[in-house]
Amino acid sequence: MYLDTHGVMLRQFSFRSSLLPFSSHSQRSFLKSASSTHPRIGATMATISTQNESTQKPVQVAKRLEKFKTTIFTQMSTLAVKHGAINLGQGFPNFDGPDFVKEAAIQAIRDGKNQYARGHGLPQLNSAVAARFREDTGLVVDPEKEVTVTSGCTEAIAATMLGLINPGDEVILFAPFYDSYEATLSMAGAKVKGITLRPPDFSVPLEELKAAVSNKTRAILLNTPHNPTGKMFTREELETIASLCIENDVLVFSDEVYDKLAFEMDHISIASLPGMYERTVTMNSLGKTFSLTGWKIGWAIAPTHLTWGIRQAHSYLTFATSTPMQSAAIAALKAPESYFKELKRDYNAKKEILVKGLKEVGFEVFPSSGTYFVVVDHTPFGLENDVAFCEYLIKEVGVVAIPTSVFYLNPEEGKNLVRFTFCKDEETLRSAVERMKLKLKRIV
Ligand SMILES: Cc1ncc(COP(=O)(O)O)c(C=O)c1O
Hints:
pyridoxal phosphate binding, Aspartate Aminotransferase, domain 2, 444 residues, alpha/beta, transferase, binds pyridoxal-5'-phosphate, 2 domains, pyridoxal phosphate
């Protein structure tokens, strides 16, 4: 058990089997004992009680959030600590961000840049975001009217949904998806339609998408490079999405937090396609690119008429974002090209270690073109579903992965897949692979 920030005791799911020998038989027994209880991990893994069990009261939550429980990332990271497992689950680097950015933050604090910032961002940061966007996409945007600085991309997502979506509006998203999308769409009262991307290449089923888009569709939400699969949307896919949006007057919300981790092809911002800027919100942040996920500096770039709604929501969500960190973000975004090249080179090396290792362990590994994630098929190890597999992996092997069923509207669709991250130092990745080689045995 541990206390959350509100003093509520969270009891994570308990493993019902005691320590098991590491054999394929034990994998099967484990499966029987653990998996039957967890048809949907997000809905079942945490039980919550007050500090005093004798005065236990049912927890309360508004209807729009009642289907969402403790996020899988919190659950898995907590379990990782509890079991001394190597955390290849949550996507935060176990190494630090660059000194020149950290120094800029320290300097800003020393210089007294510690009071509320302007609501939509420090002017110099808005300019730095616009300059980088121009360098990356060729698009010239007005930093004062078309850039909104937010508390991480997560807030950009929430401000976009809450500022531009009305209750009952239809929004299409691609499953699997980053978990905050469904929750923020639920807060906005949207009607969610899912299009599933399937292995091995997770390509967009274009005919299915065409059938799904109509003049009732308000927006399509996309994420490229894509968490959790590592898929990058191809030019053909983006062009099809663009023409459907133009034809049906649909907006696009494009989450591009992994744009600098594009390995196999060039990243394309859908806003840069003809006719798309005026209907696109491009969302991004500092966290992944600068290994500073705890800083939560993000932004939304959109034409003035869409920025209005985003800023209205942002004003009443957080109003403004940390002043000294915004100051440091200015320095970050001015990093020389060599920084981005080196980042990619480092991540490529890490990816190679993990992908090669996972193949040697016996997984079917699906190709990942971008992000710092890779998705595998766990079924050769005989566990019934992704949740059972991840439970086994943490407790019996000492490695954390993320079950992907939590990323789907229909969890069944993700039950064969789990996600590993390689945003860890090379030694950690090698140790995780060694543990898996030692203790995981294929049974099929
Ligand atoms: C696809 C995607 N979007 C947004 C975020 C959140 O970004 P931030 O930390 O800037 O809020 C994440 C973090 O994991 C992510 O994977």
